[in-house]
Design a protein that fits this description.
13 strands; 11 helices; Uridine Diphospho-n-acetylenolpyruvylglucosamine Reductase, domain 3; alpha+beta; five-stranded antiparallel β-sheet; about 280 residues; about 35% helix; Enolase-like, domain 1
């Protein structure tokens, strides 16, 4: 029989994790969908469950010298209205699922679910967030980009709990979040895009972009970003088509029930092209 454990402190949760293999549930918005059963029947949990939604230590949001700390138990609806949270992340959160789901879903839960369509993971990767994992053995930090290994696969040991995500403080000239879905609200992404840039005179000082729902995990090319950084706007304009062609090989979309790979490929590159055009015009 499946047992449930409700932890009221971080230490209590870690004690349980040190001795038991359990599902960890905070908001449960993804977990309950994955384990759903026939109407009227209990979810199909095949091992014990640890509930961590009562742990106040996991709900803290604050800033220090390391960056902006967002607790694993902080609900998306609270983050959406918290001015400490990066603006790009707040904009993304405002389009995640429905208002009701955002009241109990969490940022940590989204990245732990490791879905290619996880909206906030795109921002985690773009902004160089770190996932902080804790166990009775100590603390381990993993870059968000490395934490997700593939579909439903993450770099988390059985005895570890996500404590928080830490976002370095950035200031960019312009930020863009673009989600393509079947409707405005409560929609799973067909694809998503986030980009940021800063200019220094007529040159690109900083450039980043990341794509969601177009591969088994969020895709970002540090190599192409470095290639673009330092370009003059005229050079960027001259090489735009070549850069778009290079980015077209970074992503690897597939066909599924929400869309097809040709559509995803075309739309993703169109969004990138418009973003590059905006940068080019930004210096004029």
């Amino acid at each position: 029989m499946v047992k449930k454990y409700i932890a009221y402190s971080l230490d209590e949760a870690l004690d349980i994790l040190a001795s038991k293999d359990v599902y960890i549930v905070a908001g449960g918005s993804d977990m309950m969908v994955q384990k759903k059963n026939t109407a009227g029947l209990l979810p199909k949990f095949d091992k014990d469950v640890l509930y961590v939604s009562h742990i106040d230590e996991l709900k803290k949001v604050y800033e220090d010298k390391d960056g902006i700390h967002i607790g694993a138990g902080a609900h998306l609806s609270d983050l959406e209205n918290n001015k400490l949270v990066p603006e790009l992340l707040r904009k993304c959160i405002s389009e995640v699922a429905s208002v009701n789901i955002r009241h109990f879903a969490t940022l940590a839960g989204n990245i732990a679910n490791a879905s290619p369509a996880g909206d906030t993971i795109v921002i985690d990767v773009l902004l160089d967030a770190e996932v902080v994992l804790v166990s009775k053995k100590g603390i381990r930090k993993v870059k968000a980009e490395d934490f997700v290994l593939g579909v439903r696969k993450i770099d988390r040991h059985q005895d570890e709990l996500i404590k928080e995500l830490i976002f370095p403080v950035h200031k960019f000239d312009k930020e863009l979040w673009h989600k393509v879905g079947s409707r405005k609200a409560d929609s799973i992404s067909k694809l998503s895009f986030a980009g940021v840039y800063s200019l220094l005179g007529d040159k690109v000082k900083e450039f980043r972009c990341a794509f969601g729902s177009v591969a088994i995990k969020v895709m970002r090319s540090h190599e192409l970003e470095k290639e673009i950084e330092g370009m003059s706007l005229s050079e960027l304009n001259a090489q735009k088509d070549e850069l778009i062609e290079k980015y077209s090989h970074v992503i690897a979309p597939i066909d599924d029930q929400r869309s097809n790979k040709e559509y995803r490929q075309k739309v993703a590159m169109n969004i990138l092209a418009k973003f590059l055009d905006e940068i080019i015009k930004g210096g004029k």
